[in-house]
Amino acid sequence: MGGLCCRQKKTQEPYIVRDNVYSELPHDSRRNTAGAALPEESLYETIAYAPESIHSLHPSAPGLEETSEVLENRTVTCTSNGEVSVKRSALFCAAIDFGTTYTGYAFSSKHDHTRVFTMTSEEGSSKVPTVLLFDQNKKFHSFGYEAQKKYKELLDRDNHREWYLFKEFKMTLFQSKELKENTPLKDFQDKIEMPAIDIFACAIQFIKTKLLEDLAERGSGVLEGDIHWVLTVSAIWTDSAKQFMRKAAAKAGILNEMLSLALEPEAASVYCREDFPCVGKVGTRYILLDLGGGTADITCHRVEDGGLKELHIPQGGGFGGTDVEEKFKKLLVDIFGLAAVKSFKEKHLKEFWEMLADIEISKRKFDGNDQLVVNFPAQFRESFGEQEHIDDALQKAGCYKDIEIKRGRMFISKDKGQWIFDKTIDQVIERTQILLKVIGDVDYIVLVGGFSESKYLQTRMKETFGDKIVAPIEPRTAVMRGAVLFGQSPAAIQTRVSKYTYGIATMNRFKPEIHSEEKRIVIDGHEYCDDIFEKHVTIGQEITVGQNMKEMTYHPTIDNQAHAALQVFASSKESPEYVTDEDCQQVGLVLVELNTDRKRDFEIKVKLIFGGTEIQVEVRDGHGKSIKEARMGFLG
Questions:
Q1: Counting beta carbons within 10 angstroms of the beta carbon of residue 223, is it exposed (0 to 12), middle (13 to 18) or buried (19 or more)?
Q2: 168: β partners
Q3: Nearest to residue 19, comparing CAs of 46, 54, 58, 42?
Q4: Among candidates 404, 405, 402, 427, which has minimal Cα distance to 416?
Q5: Domain ranges of the chain
Q6: CA-to-CA distance for 577 and 580, rounded, in angstroms?
Q7: Under 8 Å CB-to-CB from 173, ≥6 apart: which residues?
Q8: Are strands 604-610 and 616-621 parallel, antiparallel or unpaired?
Q9: 343 in Cβ contact with 307 (< 8 Å)
């Protein structure tokens, strides 16, 4: 039982403060969720609020002086039954697999949903590099192979300096602790910055346009409004990162009500269950490793009759295939020094670009049994000095026996080549072993994603886990194919395990024997404990998809109140005490638009709904009638 409050101001702006008039409510209006009158002792037990000074590790909540327009820009409409119905009635389902290094799309029709078509580029691949090029006016020019080709032409003519290339920018969503729409991204030359939301939106819009052109060429007659879009996101991303992708998709012209988010390892797991016979049998337990360019996403499932059951909280980290390239660049710095490498990039960007491209090719071929061979541009050699200088550098770095540079090639011994890979692969193996200790034995360990195609990684995994290691025929496309299947049948994932403990900020009656004195406040002669974490779901809790959690009841504090709000917090602890605890962070703001002819005794019943790829909220009045305008905001 609680009071939901909003300070009255001339502009009627929808921010909230402590409920300082709650005690004026008539006693018969203070009822529990079953409708029974509460005893006097419980009248002030729980009051939901947002404190005047926002307590949050992420400054994502609006300040007290921000307007309703600002709040609107930070919110996303929660899924309604009507929205679900619209998606289900769509003629096509199309998935965009937005990767750190490669991006692609896949689609299927409602009438033949198991027949999935994928993107086919002019180069014959089903995915294209996640590379964007902007011209001198910072206008979008091209994406993928076309962007790479154009940029190489510019480099050849030394006309690249006023053009701006962006690559491997997806990792910003994983690395940024205070993600915002205007979070800056640097271009390949480290010369300019552009807002992250613009970069992501341009990429999504390009892929969306290509998919629509593909459908048109097939004579499908499908309109954009007939498509249910699915956008893939990492399972280890924060809620803010997920909403960021929704915002980017909206800016790219995808309607929110026609968009779903799919967790990448889950999507791959759905694909494997459908198209990978050894994994698809009921009762099969497996760990799926989605090893992409930027991150490794690890999920555990058991095949149930009709769907998949998650066995553990998704794991992972920033140890994808691009880590190998970073290790190679570190090797160059160790040998030649940071100044020489930076000078080479600045003076010979074309050759630096080509060197990185060659590393990408060489790392796929390396199997750990032979040398790792990489192009060594003549310009690098010339800028560093004569051969004897290079030999001296190799000697000082302790690499003289492991690395030989001759005829425009760097020949790296198999031991040093393994060293370049091993730190990344060791993390994959270690996380997998930890999971096995927690969940027990599994039937298979499934490898998907671009980095899973590394021959050396496969060798190391098989040496460690034996015959349990398996992979589908096209591990690189497993996520986008599975995302289409997931979009056609979201119930394919039956249960998930909560990644955090979620709750809301509340104010309870002060009890000196259990509450901290510094949290004690007095309102209208009554003592309350401030900043209580009111738990809705516990970390590690198994949740059925779409499951409604604990319902709480609140009240407005002024007549004709137009808006009300609740702060949602997440914690890595099982039972946090206060929302100000160090491990708590605000992850959402639930905004509720109220019927302005309601009085203060108007009841607002709130349920947080978990189990999907995003947190949803359901808000009803005391009579059970749905209040439609309920939103959850995450971005700062």
A1: exposed
A2: none
A3: 46
A4: 402
A5: 22-78+501-633, 277-471
A6: 9
A7: 179, 234, 237, 241, 244, 245
A8: antiparallel
A9: no
Q: Identify any residues that bridge with 553 across adjacent strands, giving them in sequence order.
A: 605
Strand-pairing partners, residue 571, are 501, 584
Give the pLDDT score at 483: 94
**Who contacts 113 (Cβ-Cβ below 8 Å, separation ≥6)?**
93, 484, 485, 488, 489
Ordered DSSP codes for 263-312? EHHHHHHHHHHHH-TTT-STT-EEEEEEE-SS-EEEEEEEEETTEEEE-S
Grouped pLDDT means (10 residues each) for the chain, 636 residues: 31 29 28 29 37 28 30 37 65 92 91 86 84 92 92 86 88 74 85 89 94 87 88 85 89 91 92 87 93 89 91 88 88 88 85 84 86 87 67 86 88 92 94 93 94 92 95 90 91 88 85 92 83 89 77 68 78 93 85 65 77 76 66 54
Question: What's the CA gap between 352 and 541, in Å, rounded?
Answer: 49
- Please list, in sequence order, all residues whose beta carbon lies within 8 angstroms of the beta carbon of residue 382, skipping any fewer than 6 positions away: none
Cross-strand bridge partners of residue 233: 263
335 to 160, 329, 368, 389, 406: CA distances (angstroms): 29, 10, 22, 11, 16
Report the SS3 class of residue 635: coil
Given this model, what pLDDT does residue 418 score?
A: 93
279 vs 287: CA distance, rounded Å:
10
The amino acid that residue 180 corresponds to is: K
How many angstroms separate the CA atoms of 127 and 115, rounded?
Answer: 18
pLDDT at position 248 is 93
Q: Is beta strand 469-470 parallel, antiparallel or unpaired with respect to 444-448?
A: parallel
Long-range contacts of 217-225 (CB under 8 A, 24+ apart): 220/92, 220/109, 222/91, 222/92, 224/253, 225/255, 225/258
The structure tokens listed for 173 are: 């969503």
DSSP tag of 321: T
In the three-class reduction of DSSP (H, G, I as helix; E, B as strand; rest coil), residue 543 is classed as strand
CB 579 within 8 A of CB 566: no
| Predicted model pTM | 0.79
> Whole-angstrom Cα distance, residue 239 to residue 244?
9
Give the DSSP H or E segment for 521. strand 520-523
- 348 by DSSP, 3-state: which? coil
| Cα Rg of the chain (Å, integer) | 27
Q: What DSSP letter does each residue of 80-98 carry, written as one string?
A: -HHHHHHHHT-SEEEEEEE
Other CB atoms within a 10 A radius of the CB of residue 618 amount to 18
Q: Is 251 exposed, middle or buried (0-12, 13-18, 19+ CB in 10 A)?
A: middle
Question: What pLDDT is stored for residue 174 in this prediction?
Answer: 75
Q: In whole angstroms, what is the distance from residue 455 CA to residue 415 CA? A: 15
Does the domain made of 277-471 have the CATH classification 3.90.170.10? no
Provide the residue type at 438 as one letter: V
Read off the tokens for 31.
């009822």
CB-based contact 293:127 (threshold 8 Å):
no
Dist. CA 153–CA 562, nearest whole Å: 58
d(CA 467, CA 507): 55
305, two tokens: 């009759």
Picking from 229, 233, 234, 232, the residue whose alpha carbon sits closest to that of residue 253 is 229
The C-alpha atoms of residue 102 and residue 453 are separated, in whole angstroms, by: 14
The span from the CA of 241 to the CA of 414, in Å, is 39
CA separation for the pair 117, 241 (Å, rounded): 28
Q: How far apart are CA 66 and CA 71, in angstroms?
A: 7
Distances (CA, A) of 249 to 27, 252, 294: 48, 5, 21
* Structure tokens, 549: 């959690």
